[in-house]
Amino acid sequence: METEKRIVILGSTGSIGENVLRIVDECPGRFRVVGLAAGRNADRVVRQAAEYGVPRLALADPAAARRAAGSLAGGATVGAGPEAVRELAALPDADLVVCAMVGMAALGPVLAAIDAGHDVALATKEVLVAAGALVTARAREKGVNLLPVDSEHSAIFQALADARRLPACVRGRPGEAGPGPHAPAEPAIERLWLTASGGPFFFHPEIDLAKVTPALALNHPRWKMGPKVTIDSATMMNKGLEILEARWLFDIPADRIGVLVHPESIVHSLVEFADGAQLAQLGMPDMRLPIQYAMTWPDRAPNAELPRLDLAKAGALHFHAPDPARFPCLALAREAAALGGVATCAMNAANEVAVAAFLAGRIPFPRIWESVARVVAETPSAPGTPSLDEILDADARARRRAAEILA
Ligand SMILES: NC(=O)c1ccc[n+]([C@@H]2O[C@H](COP(=O)([O-])OP(=O)(O)OC[C@H]3O[C@@H](n4cnc5c(N)ncnc54)[C@H](OP(=O)(O)O)[C@@H]3O)[C@@H](O)[C@H]2O)c1
């Protein structure tokens, strides 16, 4: 039996986090969980710690950490606050940190994991949207692999990993010297195509987006996910964020990353090569496959629990161009990418504020993109790679400005 991979899970109580634990169950002998971090769900993280025998926990919310400390058994310890989450991400005995936290709060822990030399399986797209240049440069410097968890990026990763050359986001297979200094994406890759389910509204032009309620927007037709990403899917900002995520993971300019609406969510994304060939990864819409691939990479592990795709049963697959008039977030993300500097960071921050306000019932649905557009337009452009301080400053300013606009 090969040695177990020791993993830390950041955001273990969420939708992705719980699926990570399912993969641990479904691949016996492959993984040992050495750390769990969450925001405030003390009961769930304590239950997980007991079930998986996890010695180290962290909760970002200090009151939740105190509650967890009162009910922990077996010598496990729990840290409190964002600093404790960062420390957990840097645990010396980890082999892989799976980042499944939501939002910009994951940036500090991801940088801590990279600085500690840990490979990171990254679900939290917001980290690359806000700080892609910084995070990927730091990963290169430390010789750390960034492994995509998002299903679209995993599909591209799988298509590229199987195509002779190592994708830009990894530095080498374990035990190999690696591809050497960072090289730009091979010109042989002409375009990436991200597929999008279209969310709950793309195929319902009769729905007046101004009247959409949180309950309606949370009712995603294909994927069961946490609330923030589900609202992002409904506005299609999720695809905008994913364009930027792909831009940094695969080192390809955003204007060479296209989007196709594909309601069946069977083709998870495609790579188009200079000779016109397109490689895609297909599978049932189930996040466990991309999660498992990131966790077992470079191996493919058997897992009989994962659903099999029967193309004859799946029937016809459909693809549509996006609708930029009804869903302006895609163009907004491209504009922010073109502006460079901290524009995408500001866009991400304003979007987090606006989505929270919409979920709280304080603003109508279209105010999400309207307010994000205003914040991006007001962000001063500054070419070059922003430093961590500049990113944190831009994030804080954009949050304040979005809150003012929405007050
Ligand atoms: N769900 C999907 O299918 C899917 C697919 C692709 C990409 N993603 C991306 O994956 C990320 C997670 O999505 P999700 O759907 O799993 O979200 P979710 O269900 O809302 O879970 C979020 C997790 O983050 C934790 N958390 C929140 N704030 C934290 C903090 N400050 N420190 C530590 N942990 C914190 C939460 O803990 P508490 O619950 O204890 O507060 C929870 O465990 C997002 O970036 C999303 O875009 C998700």
Explain the layout of strands and helices.
Elements (H helix, E strand, L loop, with lengths): L4 E6 L4 H12 L4 E8 L3 H11 L3 E4 L2 H10 L5 E4 L1 H8 L6 E4 L7 H9 L3 E4 L2 H18 L3 E3 L2 H11 L27 E8 L17 H4 L9 H9 L1 H14 L6 E5 L5 E7 L4 E5 L5 H9 L14 H4 L14 H11 L3 H17 L7 H12 L9 H19 L1
Parallel strand pairs: 1-2, 1-5, 2-3, 3-4, 5-6, 6-7, 8-9
Antiparallel strand pairs: 8-10, 10-11
Helix pairs in contact: 2-3, 4-5, 5-6, 6-10, 6-14, 9-14, 10-13, 14-15, 14-16, 15-16
NADP nicotinamide-adenine-dinucleotide phosphate (NAP) binds next to helix 1, strand 2, helix 6 and helix 9.
Characterization of this structure:
- The model has no long low-confidence stretch (mean pLDDT 94).
- The chain folds into 3 domains: 5-144, NAD(P)-binding Rossmann-like Domain (Rossmann fold); 150-198 and 254-322, no CATH class; 203-235 and 323-407, Rna Polymerase Sigma Factor, Chain: A (Orthogonal Bundle).
- The protein is globular.
- The chain is 44% helix and 14% strand.
- It contains 16 helices and 11 strands.
- Strand 5, helix 5 (107-115) and strand 6 (119-122) form a beta-alpha-beta unit.
- The chain has 407 residues and is α/β, with parallel strands linked by helices.
- Helix 2 packs across helix 3 (62-71) and helix 15 (367-378) packs across helix 16 (388-406).
- The termini are far apart.
- The strands form 2 sheets. A 7-stranded parallel beta sheet has the order 4-3-2-1-5-6-7, sandwiched between helices. Strands 9-8-10-11 form a 4-stranded mixed beta sheet, with helices on one face.
